[in-house]
Amino acid sequence: MRFIITAGLVMIATPALGRDAAVDLVDPLAGTLADFGQLTPAAVAPFGMVQLGPDTNPANHAGYDFAADRLNGFSFTRGVGVGCGGGGGDLLVSMRFAGASGPALMDKRRERSAAGFYRIVYDGAVTAEATATRGAGLLRFSTKRAGRVQLRIDAWHSYAKRASATWRTVNSDDLRAVMVAGTVCDKGLYRLFSSSRVTVNDRPLHRNMVAKDGVATLDLDLKRGDVVQLATGLSSVDVDGAARVRETELGSRPFKAVAAATRADWNRVLERVRPEGGRAERALFYTSLFRVFQTPVAIDDPDGRHRENDGSIARSSKGQTRYASWSLWDIYRTQLPLLALLQPERSQDIARSLADLYIRGKAQWATMNEPFLTVRTEHAGIALLDMRRKGITGFDAPGALKAMVADSATLQRDTPDQQIEAAYDDWATAQLARDLGDEATARRFTAQAIGYRPMWRSVFEKPGEDGDIVKARGLYQGTLWQYRWAPVFDLEWMMATVGNGDWRAQLHRFFNDGLFNMTNEPDIHVPWLFAAAGEAQATADLIRKILTQPMEHPYTNEGKLARPFVGYSFALAPQGFADGMDDDAGAMTAWYVFASLGLYPLVPGEPWYQVTVPAFSRTTMDLGQGRRVTVRRAGPRDGKIVQVDWNGHVLTDWRVGHDALAKGGVLTVTTQPH
User: Fold this and answer.
1) Rg (CA), the chain
2) What is the pLDDT of residue 1?
């Protein structure tokens, strides 16, 4: 069953922006049904810590399920589109009339969500609205009738394991908490500090709340139309920092002013990319870009302080921002490369944050002293190499190289997929060493990187009877057929080993026999391998099918379905993805954006893009500092691909370099009717 959103988006008045501004096309309810994306309609600012949104019963990994009509309350944090049991759920807030019990009944017909805003009516008498800034959230409750209500703030609530929750102060004017919880998959711990202010009709209450077992409550006698508001700041450092965040980012500004400012922030980052096409297509594009621009998160307090992953407190230099909350195994392929292209200034700080994390001695998943909820940090070296080769150079590359060399000795190499992934990391170490002039390290790690080749030939060159079994031979997720294409850093060797003709035939078999899995990352690059092997039309046809048509999805992370799920891979609906397909912190939505642009970073670490037919007739990208790239499609979208040219020069290999794009110009893909 497909759920279709019919309610439309809430409009928050900002007269300078028209109704068809990019931000107005974003639909945060897309991908929020069950396990079709694991997304949330929570209010969030670009790259913000706070994800302030509803917690429903039942819920998906991000605390919400579109199909649910029972509300537990609103929490301030969540990992978006990630696995295990999710992460976050800090500070669950609810307000109910006296005598109410169990989850509240939501009026789903009156549910509204937009970029940086969420609203729901529940219990037939309370309207709750949420908005957010980078590190603060604002909850507003208004009542339709008079009576006694209880405001309840649960610091013990968490989607992962809660280690501790302590109230430092219980005064309603400055309610302070310290929370420690498990990261995603409970591989480590993060510490979070909060400071909240409760007002009624914008007036402070000067009352002590009742605190017990991590829950603070406050009983209030309200008149019809009264407005209860909770303003909360979060910090990775301490409760004083959380109070400073609250006062700096929210202060005494009205709810509508905060929501409008966040909406404007979203519009600024989204409208740096301007596709021309139908409204529905642009809405799905901008909704996808909205998800991409949420990870990683900026964690600096207003004074620049932040916690490092070893528990120490540091301060960012003036003009710099510290980022955290990593899901690198997912996003190094697509999301970080997309940020390097579309957000090069921000990517300087992201690369610096990642390099510093590496240099301090990062864990593969998480430490016991994380500054914020996080997932995993494998392949950080590939991400840093990729960014550096794309002109993002403001980090300590020699220090990162030293850390990458040390990290190599800790990598698991037991199963076939582990050997491939470790080889990719070693290749990145060799490449960075060569870029820095360290030939000895480059030779050592090049030899180590290609050490996987005998294994590949024995296991993957001709997958055996277990080739289509999920997790065969200890694979983490996926099948041997899906992982066989993973060593993209060694693409020329694989093609030469198999032979170009056989390579192409095997690619066709992979898709014709239904072996491809669009719902997980290991093989999402494979449609682009046709173009790399000289069959540009096959890539164009596959990409168009994935973007626009229902298709069979036979796989989940745990096994192969008895009957494939048939549906869209990407849709502007609560059922926004295929069954079991997580967005994985923007990894999948970044794939969608790249595919719509007709570009793909086939080999993260090498600064070029495979080119195919773009979804839009024309897209303009503002890369900053006056540089603009236009991607044009001359001819029908479903036509025969004829030629690709960059500023009038034909690209015979269907590739365009990042350096060329970064300087600005026009990429034209010419097609003609079949």
Assistant:
1) 25
2) 34
Number of other CB atoms surrounding residue 314 within 10 Å: 15
Contact of 291 with 577, CB cutoff 8 Å: no
Rounded CA-CA distance 274/617 in Å is 11
* Six token digits for residue 80: 């978006």
pTM, full prediction: 0.96
Helix locations, 484-586, DSSP H: 491-498, 500-512, 529-532, 536-548
> Can you tell me the distance from the alpha carbon of 490 to that of 655, in angstroms, rounded to the nearest whole number?
17
For residue 196, the 8-state DSSP code is E
Q: What pLDDT, on the 0 to 100 scale, is given for residue 176?
A: 98
Q: What is the SS3 assignment for 45? A: coil
Q: Check if the beta carbon of residue 547 is closer than 8 Å to that of residue 595.
A: yes
Which run of H or E residues covers position 297? strand 297-298
Residues 133-160 as b/e (b if ≥16 CB within 10 A, e otherwise) read bbbbbbbbbbbeeeeebbbbbbbbbbbb
* Cβ-contact 357, 383 below 8 angstroms: no
Q: Where are the alpha helices (H) located in 19-74, listed in sequence order?
A: none
At 69 the three-state DSSP class reads coil
Cβ of 410: how many Cβ atoms within 10 Å?
10
Write down the pLDDT at residue 183: 93
Joined together, the tokens standing for residue 75 give: 């929490």
Instruction: Count CB-CB contacts under 10 A for residue 271.
Output: 15
Q: Report which of 479, 484, 475 is spatially closest to residue 414, judged by C-alpha positions.
A: 475
* Cα dihedral across residues 456, 459, 460, 462: positive or negative: positive
DSSP 3-state assignment of 350? helix
Could you identify the residue written with the tokens 């309200």? 222
Q: For position 9, what pLDDT does the model report? A: 37
Instruction: Specify which residues 96 forms β-bridges with.
Output: 150
Contact (CB, 8 A) for 601 and 613: no
pLDDT, position 19: 52
Q: Which candidate, 635, 636, 654, 658, places its Cα nearest to that of 645?
A: 654
Shortest CA distance to 91 belongs to which of 145, 184, 134, 154?
A: 154
Residue 564 parent element (H or E): strand 560-567
Q: Are 70 and 57 in contact (CB under 8 A)?
A: yes
Burial (CB count <10 Å: 0-12, 13-18, 19+), residue 559: exposed
Ranges of the chain with pLDDT below 50: 1-18
